[in-house]
Amino acid sequence: MSRYPHRISVIDSHTGGEPTRVVMAGAPDLGGGTMEQRRLRFTGDADFLRPALLGEPRGFEAMVGALLCESEIQDCICGVIFFNNSGLLNSCLHGTIGLIKTLEFKGRISAGEHRIETPVGIVRATLNPDGSVTVANVPSYRYREAVVVELPGWGEVRGDIAWGGNWFYLVEGYGPELTLGNVSGLSEFTLALMNALEVAGITGEDGARIDHVELFGPPPDQDSDSRNFVMCPGGQYDRSPCGTGTSAKLACLHASGKLEAGAIWRQSSILGTVFEGRAEPLEDGRVTPFVTGRAWVNGECEIVIDPDDPFGLGIAQA
Ligand code: PYC
To answer: For the packed helices 243-255 and 93-105, what is the interaxial angle rounded to 10 degrees?
Structure first.
């Protein structure tokens, strides 16, 4: 008899093209405490969910998982722990938008504001009457400006380091052209950049690893202000404009005086899907980013883990 659960209920969605698989029931109980405390327990007790639910042959490498939890914070409707092919994510806004649409799909919430506990703090997600979702993210800020890193084969690259719920290195005007046809070249460039940052010892605040690299270029059309390409930990690019990445961008725009409080910034993804953002300044120089996007539920199923299946826990676990 396997020590793993045999049946796990999930609901799938995509947010601007980026997939989220919400674990609704059947996952190991991570006990009580904050999402940050439970996140630490995930690695021991629930880590099999990553290859089993997101990896082949059931999933695919770009999927992001969201473990739905009960929160002990009274006014939070739930807690959530995000994970991907390489480990646990600090935060994920495309996933938060997908989670809200999932809860609506199940009839658990209706239009209005809902507070959700995440490992990096409470986010406020509003299900709008038109079906879009606006997330008021955790306070975000530019940590360092114009940080130079030497990239073998390319020379010096300059970018900002910012927190938007994850740590980002934001770069404009370097690397291959931002088109969907260039995804493999863009992936190679951003992964090399992530590696170069690590080798050079360049980090976020308190030595935090920069695990997302975000490239910016001109907008594809009049529907947005800029197009991005975001590389995530695990080597997969974000198909959406990346909510935490858009938050980091809003923080940088605010810090350089290029975006007034409340002004709209429309961030296009490499696919051409758009998140709308705005930043409300806080007294300490940080901002509260508001990111609006759309998600669609596209699957609901019960995952079966047959103890006799050699790939029941994913090919990586076989
Ligand atoms: O939307 O914040 C986001 C995100 C992070 C990683 C993938 N998507």
So the answer is: 130
How far does residue 35's CA lie from ligand 1's centre (Å)? 18
The verdict on the CB of residue 232 being under 6 Å from ligand 1 is yes
Rounded to two decimals, the pTM is 0.97
Q: Please, what sign has the CA dihedral across residues 193, 199, 202, 208?
A: positive
Instruction: Express each pLDDT in 143-156 by its tens digit.
Output: 999 999 999 999 99
Which are the contacts of 207, defined by CB distance < 8 A and separation ≥ 6? none
C-alpha 8: how far from chain center: 23
pLDDT tens readout for residues 102-137: 999 999 999 999 999 999 999 999 999 999 999 999
Atom of ligand 1 nearest to the CA of 247: 2
Selecting among 78, 232, 242, 252, the annotated active-site residue is 242
Best of 166, 170, 270 to mutate for ligand 1, by most ligand atoms within 8 A of CB? 166
Nearest to 234 by CA among 40, 64, 95: 64
